Amino acid sequence: MNNKEFAKQLEVRTRLFGISVIKLSATLPNTIEGKVIRNQITKSGTSIGANYREANRSRSKKDFKNKIKISESEASETEYWLEIINDLNWVESKQLNTIIKEAKELLALFTSIANKL
């Protein structure tokens, strides 16, 4: 697979991840605390793909690296919120484990990409 194909596949993957985060956030408790975490995880989980998409349309290598680092940071933050949700037992473990696994894989991918720049 060449870089262009990889980039396209990763854009789709991050978009699907964002959708899964939105669906997950919709199941969180309708309490003040639930709303705070819903807002945080929705913002960070969807920002991963948005910033990656922007990276692929960047005007310079420096801009590309900056957007990749933001995607990496947002993936880490999303993983944090997923851990909080897990610790609070707000969502069934089976559903949560799948999305946590994907968050970890995305974080590893963006970390690897950033380290190669």
From TrEMBL:
Bilayer-spanning residue ranges: none
Protein source organism: Neotamlana nanhaiensis
NCBIfam families referenced in this protein's UniProt entry, alphabetically: four helix bundle protein
InterPro entries: 23S_rRNA-intervening_sequence, 23S_rRNA_IVS_sf
Recorded coiled-coil stretches: none
Pfam family, one: 23S_rRNA_IVP
Protein name from the UniProt record: Four helix bundle protein
Lineage: Bacteria, Pseudomonadati, Bacteroidota, Flavobacteriia, Flavobacteriales
